[in-house]
Amino acid sequence: MRPDRLNPLFVSADSLKGVGPGLARPLERLGLTRVRDFLYHLPDRFVERRAVTDLDQASVGENIVVALTPIEYRSSAGRGPFRVLATDAPGNVCAITYFGRNAGWAKKSLPLGETRWIAGRLDQFGQMLQVVHPDHVSEESAVALGQLVEPVYALCEGLTQGRLTALIQQALVGIDDLPEWIEPGLFDRMKWPSWRDALDLVHKGEHREARDRLAYDELLANSLALLLVKTANRARRGTPLAGDGRLRARVNLPFALTGAQRRSIAEIEADIAQEAPMLRLLQGDVGSGKTVVALESMLIAVEAGAQAALLAPTEILARQHFETLTRMAQGTGIEIALLTGRDKGRAREATLMGLHDGSIPIVVGTHAIFQDAVQYRNLALVVIDEQHRFGVGQRLMLAQKGKRTPHCLAMTATPIPRTLTLAQYGEMDVSKLDEMPPGRQPIDTRVVAIERMADVIASLSRHLGTGQQAYWVCPMVRELESEDLAAAEARFAELKEHFGQDVVLVHGQLRPEIKDAAMERFAAGGAKLLVATTVIEVGVDVPNATLMVIEQAERFGLAQLHQLRGRVGRGSAASTCLLLRSNALSETAKRRLALMRETQDGFRIAEEDLELRGGGELLGTRQSGETAFRVASLEQIQKLLPLAHDDARLLIERDGGLTGERGEAARLLLYLFERDWGVQLLRGG
Ligand code: ADP
Ligand code: MG
Question: Which biological process annotations from GO are given for this protein (predicted)?
Answer without folding.
Answer: DNA repair
